[in-house]
Amino acid sequence: MLRTVVTVIAFLLASSLASLVWAHPMDTQNAAFVQGVDGAVPAPFMYLGAKHMVTGYDHLLFLIGVVFFLFRARDVVLYVSLFTLGHSITLLVGVLSGVEVNPYGIDAIIGMSVCYKAFENMGGFERILGWRPNTKVAVLVFGLFHGLGLATKLQEFTVTDNGLVANIVSFNVGVEIGQILALTAVLIGITFWRTRPSFSRHAFMTNTALMAGGFILTAQQVFGYVFYP
User: Fold this and answer.
1) pLDDT by residue (tens digit) across 12-71?
2) Which domain holds residue 98?
3) How far apart are CA 72 and CA 67, in angstroms?
4) 109 and 169 in contact (C-beta within 8 Å)?
5) Inside any domain, residue 12
6) What is d(CA 120, CA 109) in angstroms, rounded to the nearest whole number?
7) Are 196 and 1 within 8 A, CB to CB?
């Protein structure tokens, strides 16, 4: 099972490297659709939102870190709800109010959120600081940054004001659908792995790989900020 988990993480990282700089860009066909929309078209925007989350390996790596040591369903629901609340707020506010942030900078923070959660899972804060920051607050705050990252992707294109609210809400609903689908697969894999003796033996190693992935994603964005201003 360790091999499977590491393979999934490695696949996500390889996919991120293949895109070079953007963590999860909107492809040309989808971008053209977004720019050509005039009016409310909920279904296509829901599809785009779901696709964006399922292929958004930075979000997925963070969620893997969040649920890695959550054994009770109510805890999973609580933490995922906090993450959802955070990214829903900033996605909607960012697009509807026109708040603009540097996409490289925000994606670098998203990469660091993966490092943060993996480091926390490894007990790093207790070892170095002697205490652990509030995990619920951290998940909510990083959710806000993840939402801004989603907003920057839509802000790259001209989206008409006609039907904008309905389309952005639909996009956000699609993001939640994609998140549920991806998270379900992650939970099935991790839950099965927890029944094996290898889980306790290799949890630290897996989170080390997760943290390394976060550093790679962060480095990508720093590279983009420096060379593609």
Assistant:
1) 444 444 444 444 555 555 655 665 666 677 888 888 888 888 888 888 899 999 999 999
2) 43-227
3) 10
4) no
5) no
6) 16
7) yes
- The domain total for the chain is 1
Does residue 171 form part of some domain?
yes
Angstrom distance (rounded) from CA 36 to CA 24: 21
Distances (CA, A) of 229 to 104, 149, 210, 217: 9, 17, 28, 17
Tokens found for residue 93: 């506010």
Nearest one of 21, 47, 53, 15 to 34, comparing CA atoms: 47
On whether residue 31 sits in a domain, the answer given is no
Euclidean distance between CA atoms 224 and 55, whole angstroms? 20
Other Cβ atoms less than 10 A from the Cβ of 149: the count is 29
- What pLDDT digit, counting tens, does each position of 182-217 carry? 999 999 999 999 989 889 889 999 999 999 999 999
In a domain, 106, yes or no: yes
Angstrom CA distances, 66 to 21, 44, 98, 120, 148, stand at 24, 29, 30, 10, 19
108 and 224 Cβ atoms separated by less than 8 Å: no
Q: Which helix (H) or strand (E) holds 142?
A: helix 135-155
